[in-house]
Write a structure and sequence with these properties.
Layout (H helix, E strand, L loop, with lengths): L2 E6 L6 H6 L4 E3 L6 H10 L5 E6 L6 E8 L4 E2 L23 E2 L1 E12 H5 L18 E4 L1 H9 L2
Parallel strand pairs: 1-3
Antiparallel strand pairs: 1-8, 2-7, 3-4, 4-7, 5-6
Length: 151
C-alpha cells in the first residue's frame, strides 16, 4: 500500500463536495503535469491512502482522509472544448491526461501548514519542501502515521 497527498482547489472540488457525491467518490480531473499523471498511471493502486488537501485558498490544509478508488483512466475534460482543462493536442485514441477516482473516507479537522512544519518528524515531507508545487505527491508511511495522529 502506498500513500499520497492530492491537492484540490476547494471551489472546484472540496472535501464536502466529495462527501456529497455518490459513494463519496469524485474523479480527480484536471491534472496537467506529467509527473503527477505518471504517479496516477504507474504507481497508484486501488486502496492506496490519500491525504485530501485544499490548495489555492486562504488556509491551505489537509482536510480529509481518502483512498484511491479506481485505476487510472482518460480524463474526459481534455476533450471538452468548454473545459478549462481542454487540451487540443490530446486525442481520444491517444489521451495525454489521466485521472483516478478518489473516495473520501472521513473529513478531519484542518491540519494547516504551520502545524505540519512544527513537527520535526515531517521536515522531509515533500509537501513542505521549497518549490514543490505538484498537485500529487507520494507520502512516506512514517509521515502518514504522524499525520493521522495529529489532532
Amino acid at each position: 500500500m502506498k500513500y499520497w497527498l492530492m491537492k484540490s482547489e476547494p471551489e472546484e472540488s472540496s472535501v464536502d463536495d466529495a462527501l456529497a457525491a455518490k459513494n463519496s467518490t469524485v474523479p480527480w480531473v484536471g491534472v496537467r503535469n506529467y509527473q503527477a499523471r505518471n504517479f496516477m498511471r504507474d504507481s497508484m493502486q486501488v486502496g492506496d491512502g490519500v491525504l485530501f488537501y485544499h490548495s489555492s485558498c486562504d488556509q491551505p490544509c489537509i482536510v480529509g482522509i481518502a483512498q484511491v478508488a479506481s485505476t487510472a483512466y482518460p480524463d474526459p475534460t481534455q476533450f471538452d472544448l468548454n473545459s478549462p482543462y481542454y487540451d487540443p493536442k490530446s486525442k481520444p485514441e491517444e489521451p495525454r491526461w489521466l485521472l483516478v477516482d478518489v473516495q473520501v473516507l472521513k473529513k478531519i479537522p484542518n491540519i494547516i501548514l504551520p502545524a505540519l512544519r512544527a513537527r520535526p518528524e515531517l521536515a522531509d515531507m515533500l509537501l513542505l519542501k521549497k518549490g514543490n508545487r505538484l498537485s500529487i505527491t507520494p507520502v512516506e508511511p512514517c509521515h502518514w502515521k504522524v499525520i493521522l495522529k495529529i489532532k
